[in-house]
Structure formats: C-alpha cells, structure tokens
Design brief:
Layout (H helix, E strand, L loop, with lengths): L5 E5 L7 H13 L7 E5 L5 H7 L4 E5 L16 H6 L4 E4 L2 H6 L4 H14 L2 E6 L3 H5 L3 H15 L8 E5 L13 H18 L2 H6 L1 E5 L7 H5 L6 E4 L7 H6 L4
Parallel strand pairs: 1-2, 1-8, 2-3, 3-4, 4-5, 5-6, 6-7, 7-8
C-alpha cells in the first residue's frame, strides 16, 4: 500500500511574536506546495486557533502536546476534547523534549495516545534514542521499549491514525543529521517491530517519518529511502526552506 508522504513542522515555543507568526503563515499560504504531500504545522498552544483560521486549508494544524482528561483541575494542560472541539486534528506526543525536560514516561505517553485516539485525534508519536544509547548499539531496543506500551493499549484499527516520528535525540536541533543508512536502518527496524507485534498490514501502512536537523540540503536524499515516509522538522520549519522540505519528492 502506498504511504502518503508527510511533512510536519514543529514550531516548538516559536515564533516569539504574533507578527512573526503571521509572517510564517503568509509564507506558507503563498508557497507552491506538492499536493501529494500531507502537510501539518504545529504552533504553540496559544497560536493554534489563529493559525488554523488563517492558514490555507490544505495544511493541517497539530498541537504539540495534550493531557489525558476531557476537563478539570489540571493547570496548564490542554485536553484532547478541547482540541477536537477547536477542530485541531493532530497532536504531537512523546517529543524528546517532553520526555527529557518534562519527564514524560513511555507509559504516560501511551495513555495520552489512547486518550487522544478515543476523542478522534490523529497522533504524531515521537520516539528515538540518545547518543549514548546509539553508541551502545541500543537504538532498536530503545525504540521498541518506547513503542511497547503504545502497542499494548492500541487496537489494530487505531494505527491508521498514528504517524511515528523517529527522532534520534542527538540529531534534534544539533545540525547533526542521521546518515541515510542510519535513518533507513532505524525505520526498517521499527517497521519490523510493528509487523511482529501487530500485523504486517499495520507495518506496511503506518507512516514512519524522520526528524532531526532536516533541512533543504539533506531532505532530498532522505526522502528517497524506502522506509522514510516524510519528516518532522523543527528549526527549518520556521524558515522559507520548509517549502523545499515539503517539496522533497517533487
Ligand atoms: C523536532 O523538534 O522535532 C526536530 C526534529 O527539530 P530539528 O529539526 O530542529 O532538529
């Protein structure tokens, strides 16, 4: 089954002003984007609704995180129900910055994935190893351990709403991109794990995208790899080169 190429822009806690946010949306609204690629941008929570309302309709919007419950005394959190009510279709879960800076565990991320799916959201689920883990030869094992609690909580049919973002922590925001060989190997191992633990159908149809210092210079080669179905882009999603990354397959 052909997997649609997917490019996500994770703005993180950027841009720093509404003026810059408006300029970024204008840039994307005026760009020529490959219609064959699914494009999703993920602004900070404060900008989700203004971006959704001002961006072209062929670009979807994602939250960068959400909590488990529909509503209640959870200061600072956003619920999956609120995202759905605000017509935000995607949420990023398990980003390495959430795992390391905010101490989110794989079990907690799996529970949030379950809660978000139950409300009807699609998920960009991030996994990936640290440099120490890669150097110890533990990349596949770490990815499996991060996926395991998610696999345990999801039904086979849920996987059509999951995009897995393989993001080696050592490549995020460092300018150090995985080599095509490293990316292909990790993506293939993740697909094999899905096949072993769920089904060959889910393994074949689930998009596995790469994230970590993707830019206009390296996106073309990475986009040709058989198991790389797109990108999650941080720093470069705030720049005009994001358009070239979206158009990597063109
Ligand atoms: C990210 O934050 O998901 C990411 C991949 O960042 P960058 O592209 O800046 O490495």
């Amino acid at each position: 089954m052909a997997r649609q190429f997917f490019v996500g822009g994770n703005f993180k806690m950027n841009p720093a002003s509404r003026k810059d946010k408006v300029a970024l949306v204008k840039l994307l609204n005026e760009a020529e984007l490959d219609p064959a690629t699914e494009v999703v941008v993920s602004p900070p929570a404060l900008y989700l609704i203004p971006v959704k309302e001002s961006i072209r309709k062929d670009i979807k919007v994602a939250a960068q995180n959400c909590y488990l419950k529909d509503s209640g005394a959870f200061t600072g959190e956003i619920s999956p129900a609120q995202l759905v009510d605000s017509e935000i279709p995607y949420v990023i879960l398990g980003h390495s910055e959430r795992r390391t800076l905010f101490h989110e565990t794989s079990d907690f991320i799996a529970q949030k994935t379950r809660a978000a799916l139950d409300k009807g959201l699609s998920i960009i689920l991030c996994i990936g190893e640290t440099l120490k883990e890669r150097e110890a030869g533990e990349t596949a094992q770490v990815c499996e351990e991060q996926l395991k609690p998610v696999v345990a909580l999801l039904k086979e049919s849920d996987w059509s709403k999951i995009v897995i973002a393989y993001e080696p922590v050592w490549a995020i925001g460092t300018g150090k991109v995985a080599t095509p060989q490293q990316a292909q190997e990790a993506h293939k191992d993740i697909r094999t794990y899905l096949s072993k633990t769920i089904s060959s159908n889910v393994a074949e149809s689930t998009r596995i995208i790469y994230g970590g210092s993707v830019n206009a210079g390296n996106c073309k080669e990475l986009s040709t790899l058989p198991d790389v179905d797109g990108f999650l882009v941080g720093g470069a999603s705030l720049k005009p080169e994001f358009v070239q990354i979206v158009n990597s397959k063109k």
